[in-house]
TrEMBL record:
This is Serine/threonine-protein phosphatase CPPED1. Residues 70-252 form the Calcineurin-like phosphoesterase domain. GO terms for cellular component: cytoplasm. Keywords: Cytoplasm, Hydrolase, Metal-binding. Its EC number is 3.1.3.16. Pfam families: Metallophos. It catalyses: O-phospho-L-threonyl-[protein] + H2O = L-threonyl-[protein] + phosphate; O-phospho-L-seryl-[protein] + H2O = L-seryl-[protein] + phosphate. Belongs to the metallophosphoesterase superfamily. CPPED1 family. It comes from Seriola lalandi dorsalis. Its main location: cytoplasm. It is an enzyme of class 3 (hydrolase). Its cofactor is a divalent metal cation.
Length: 315
């Protein structure tokens, strides 16, 4: 495992911020967390150069933006319970030039995160390759932690998924099957009533590729999951009581709420492909709801969390 990454990998070891899983299964009141996506070191220059399949030979801009995000999150009060980065940590694909340097510099930028705000990493297509292999998945796991896992925080069950295995697992079918088996077990336990296990107050999912961008019946696109896969996951998530799915990948804000399941697509810390600004999403968890809002980095640094969200945390 790469040096200095251990402080980021608490979730990998099934503990959270020094607390055991059992200690975090109980609801203790409202809290907030930060959802971010796509720092993708190297994309901004590659996008300007029109060479997104290669390029990426400069990434100082994304390093600075990541540092700004960390500084903004560090100063928030009350402190977020965690910060999750929903994939595409770097732009360089596995086993290509610049990959090692981008990962090294991203870790250095993230090292400034307050240790009381654990970082949770989600794998994206640039982290694993558009068609992942056992080797690229292992590389990611050795650098950043498991590609799928669950953790509890404040009575909420969080599922981190490898969405690339939903998108194209042709080179690693056994890994896809293993995640499917694990996911079905997690969803079944979340939906079941038990005298020995507390039922989660909410169930949340984090993945890189959105289920959809606007509506569940939209056409297949590079930026969403295929319709058959999408519908299968939607049906299973709804049955298990999943409240929200958080993703990135689109480099724009999007999403929608259908049949009580919120599909949240957040724009990037790094390169913007639409009209949004560099930012992160503040998510407030109450006993009854999941309330979220995208904040620009400048807005978050200058004014913190919006006042109406802060009031929800005081309830």
């Amino acid at each position: 495992m790469a040096e200095s990454v251990d402080i980021f990998l608490r979730a990998k070891h099934r503990t959270f911020n020094g607390l055991t899983e059992d200690a975090e299964r109980e609801w203790t009141g409202p809290f907030c967390f930060i959802q971010a996506a796509d720092p993708q070191l190297g994309l901004m220059k590659a996008w300007r150069d029109g060479d997104c399949d290669g390029g990426g030979d400069e990434w100082a801009e994304e390093v600075e933006l990541t540092k700004q995000a960390v500084e903004a999150v560090n100063q928030l009060r009350p402190r977020p319970r965690f910060m999750v980065l929903c994939g595409d940590l770097v732009h360089a694909m596995p086993d290509t030039p610049f990959r090692e340097g981008q990962e090294r510099d991203l870790k250095a930028a993230l090292k400034g995160a307050d240790p009381s705000i654990p970082l949770v990493f989600v794998s994206g297509n640039h982290d694993l390759g558009n068609t992942p292999t056992p080797g690229t998945v292992e590389q990611f796991c050795s650098e950043w932690g498991d590609d799928y896992f669950s953790f509890w925080v404040g009575g909420v069950l969080c599922l981190v998924l490898n969405s690339q295995l939903f998108y194209d697992a042709s080179a690693c079918p056994q890994l896809k099957e293993a995640q499917e088996t694990w996911l079905e077990e997690q969803l079944s336990r979340a939906a079941a009533s038990s005298s020995t296990e507390p039922k989660p107050k909410h169930v949340l999912v984090f993945q890189h590729i959105p289920l959809y961008l606007k509506t569940p019946d939209e056409e297949d696109d590079y930026f969403n999951l295929q319709r058959a896969v999408r519908q299968n996951l939607l049906d299973r998530f709804k049955k298990a009581g999943v409240k929200a799915v958080f993703s990135g990948h689109y480099h724009r804000n999007a999403g929608g709420c259908h049949d009580g399941l919120d599909m949240v697509v957040s724009s990037a810390i790094g390169c913007q492909l639409g009209g949004d600004t560099h930012g992160v999403r503040v998510v407030v968890v109450t006993a009854d709801s999941i309330v979220h809002r995208y904040h620009s980095l400048e807005q978050l640094r200058a004014g913190g969390v919006d006042q109406d969200l802060r009031k929800l945390l005081q309830a």
